């Protein structure tokens, strides 16, 4: 029985005919990748806004070495008109899906998957058919994933690129001061505990 992907799972490999030729999915890895699993039919309004926003932000993703791979189950011919990669229904239902009135799985308009260079799943977000995604948030997540993979830090709620980051609780005070040369500061809490340590973005 097929199941959805969980964090840490290896990306499924597949071959697909696309608007840019045949691709082998895992050959695209080596970079963090964003995936959009689209609504079963091209030209649906929510999905169209998704693709437009993705195209507008493409330079921001490209400069961070992110490969955007929008997917749908429609034909390549339809996809050429809609400028996106296509995928068949058998593969699409490997991913979390809604079901139609007959109980047949259909892909949601956007299921975002982020895979790391090791081909493992780092993030997934499933949106309902009536709700478009937030590409500002998706870009924010990529920035966080790349930063925290390289540095021993974490990113707090609502953090924007350039804001301070958090020092991991597993790093002792003296080691943190040595590693994080821009300095470490602690936010005061009513409890008096020094668990919220910050440093300027490395």
Automatic annotation (TrEMBL):
User: What reaction does this catalyse?
Assistant: a hydroperoxide + 2 glutathione = an alcohol + glutathione disulfide + H2O
**One record GO biological process:** cell redox homeostasis
A Pfam family this chain is assigned to: AhpC-TSA
GO MF annotations for this entry?
peroxidase activity
Q: Does the keyword Cell inner membrane apply?
A: no
* Uppermost EC category: oxidoreductase
**Where in the sequence is the active site?**
47
Q: Which domain of life is it from?
A: Eukaryota
Q: PROSITE patterns, from UniProt?
A: THIOREDOXIN_2
The alphabetized UniProt keywords are: Antioxidant, Oxidoreductase, Peroxidase, Redox-active center
Per the record, its GO cellular-component terms are:
cytosol; mitochondrion
Q: What does this protein do?
A: Thiol-specific peroxidase that catalyzes the reduction of hydrogen peroxide and organic hydroperoxides to water and alcohols, respectively.
Family per UniProt?
Belongs to the peroxiredoxin family.
Identify this protein by name: Peroxiredoxin-6
